[in-house]
Amino acid sequence: MKKARKYYLDPPKVFVAGFAVIILVGTALLMLPIATNDGKGLSFLDALFTATSATCVTGLVVVDTGTAFTLFGQLVILALIQVGGLGFMTFATLFAFLLGKRISLKERLLLQEAMNNLTIEGIVRLVKRVLIFTVVIELIGGLLLAVRFSFDMPLLKAFYFGMFHAVSNFNNAGFDLMGNFRSLTGYVEDPVVTLVICALITLGGIGFIVMNEVYEYRQTRRFSLHTKVAVATSGILLASSILLIFLLEFHNPNTLEPLSPLGKFLATLYQAVTPRTAGSNTLNISDLTQPTLFLIIFLMFVGASPGSTGGGIKTTTFAILLGAVWSQIRGKEDVVFFKKRIMYDTIYKSLTVTISGLFIVIFVTMLLTITEQGKDFLMILFEATSAFGTVGLSMGLTPELSPFGKVIIMCTMFAGRVGPLTIAYAVTLHRKPDPFRYPKGKIMIG
Question: Are strands 340-341 and 336-337 parallel, antiparallel or unpaired?
């Protein structure tokens, strides 16, 4: 009995099972007649796909969110985005706070897994601040967007649109209510919409651990190595992608060329920020040049920072791999960031996450080339990477997916949100170190 209970309460297993249960509940709600404007509800497969995309904060959609769903259906999607972005354990902890319950050690371990934190020390305080950060940021972003939208629609609708898009983009989901799959292309030159949503995406993707350290900086006067690496890597990726996208699209008559100088900058900024797992767009993705699309694929694969609402292999993982390569090139034994040596187990884990992600993207792309015959290869690779990175950007393939293609993308979104390692840990019955070590062997490399 004790073994069975221990197996059930293993954090990775509970984490995976919790997301699966939320998706199934969302699927059932989206199948109700009151969820869609046609009064029929979605089919099981489309409801499951939409619930998976919302819970995994991806944004890939097979039906248009703004026109297909009633207010009830949209609110279900919004709730799934919020729970999926922050994690079900965060909301379970919120209810425990409201009921005055004490957070047990096992629940703290689950929170550590959900928040991707290194230790359980201070995890409850971190969760409280996460909830406060989320409410404040989403409310401010929603009100700013509502003010802007009020010039284009009635005030109550503008407030609803503002809050929906604030929640969606802070959680890096990419769902929108603009209708006809056009996302935010109507606001490509709008500074308020662009800057507010870019700020929401960046704050949601930088990670709550980083936000908490920034909040505590006046008392601590220091940042951890994690925060330094995450912020530095995110900044370098953003700056370089802005420059590259601007250069690659400057003379594209379908994207940047017809825009004003300010519009060119805003459109470039948005397209550089959104691949960091957000999913909304102000330029038509299928109109971008092939080099830009390939750059976006790379950015989607890297994704956001750990402990955030975003997906991908994460910025710190990418930084550690680059650091390992640079150390090897220079003939150095250690990987060093900011005068701190990175432990070998962290390097091995980064390598495992990256190779697992590459394997998933390659395998899913291969499967989709079989199920979606006749589709462009770059479109399929883009879709597969977007699903794994829980981004939500698409070149138009999602609504045209075959039933089997939808199942493949659903599984990919789930793996991308939960994490390949977490799923591997969840399905492994026993994980323990080897009782002995084999003698060393040598293999020629390069």
Answer: antiparallel
